[in-house]
């Protein structure tokens, strides 16, 4: 008997009918001879509604109390799902993140998992129960406070439990049929990918693909846990994410030269103007950002002007961290020695991802030609062995994605992509 971990997003359990549909799918997996652990997100837009409520009573909610509030959404889902499963004649037990043994650090609202000790989950499934776990949450190692893992944390919860329980597979159920070559909301002719490597999926996730979160894929790669991304609204095979290609019959599914095109409009750009071009200046800028606990993405430094010896350094970061970054840099302006700061939140990032590009000349040229033909101006460029990313105006992103997708022959012959829900989570 194998153990399977399944994760269901908010769109899958958005209402009573959705919860009953998910319960039937879980029971079916149990009837097929599997031990089943299901991880659930909050119903529909519950988390957003709770955040709105918190902001109505406090302009800056305390992190500890906000975590206590937000974790209520997943607890509602897990209890209702356990009830639905019991109504189908099967035993189910629900567990909060702390009861499931998800141990985190003490950073509220974006905690990281330190360890998973799933003794109660193991005992429950060994007794013949279906275990239902509240995703997105854990308990801090030192203070024993309730913590949340940040957006998409339920995916990470599921993979972490799969690793700790030595599961055969972690199934991530969402409102699309798998991982596509582009966001099907933007590119109607996006194709579903049968198999993709951890490395390519990591690049897509970090470049804006919302089907899987970067932390979830990183965790799965570290512990070599195969992920099957599929829809809870259909019975179709989804996308396998693993270290080795899957096999269909006697035919092995090969990885394409280009895996897909991702985009992200949630970032902003800060330009530090008039930085002295001497050793230590860039370090001072990014140490200031790091001390403010802000993650950055792309970085570009211009060639310094010969007459002044000054340069400009631009970098991108989440829009939600923009104000904090500006305040931190202004506070340390004297120590860094720059002239001024420019902030721009009307940008978008387009990324082309594929392990095959490192051995196929001409990919970079074709990428930039596609953007040029679409009339898209490029502001920043960043590359790796398997990814090319550019920053453009936010208004140009959708057109740029469609142009690049077509240029690399990724369009399907028909409108294959179906979005069953509304959020992609």
Automatic annotation (TrEMBL):
Catalytic activity: L-aspartate + ATP = 4-phospho-L-aspartate + ADP
Pfam families, per database record: AA_kinase, ACT_9
InterPro entries named among the record's database cross-references: AceGlu_kinase-like_sf, ACT-like_dom_sf, ACT_Aspartokinase, ACT_dom, AKii-LysC-BS, Asp/Glu/Uridylate_kinase, Asp_kin_monofn, Asp_kinase
GO terms for MF: aspartate kinase activity
Top-rank EC class of the record's enzyme: transferase
SUPFAM superfamilies xref list: ACT-like, Carbamate kinase-like
Gene3D superfamilies given in the database record: Acetylglutamate kinase-like (3.40.1160.10), VC0802-like (3.30.2130.10)
Keyword Kinase carried by entry: yes
Matches recorded under NCBIfam families: asp_kin_monofn, asp_kinases, PRK06635.1-1, PRK06635.1-2, PRK06635.1-4
Name of this chain's protein: Aspartokinase
Native organism: Streptomyces broussonetiae
Classification lineage: Bacteria, Bacillati, Actinomycetota, Actinomycetes, Kitasatosporales
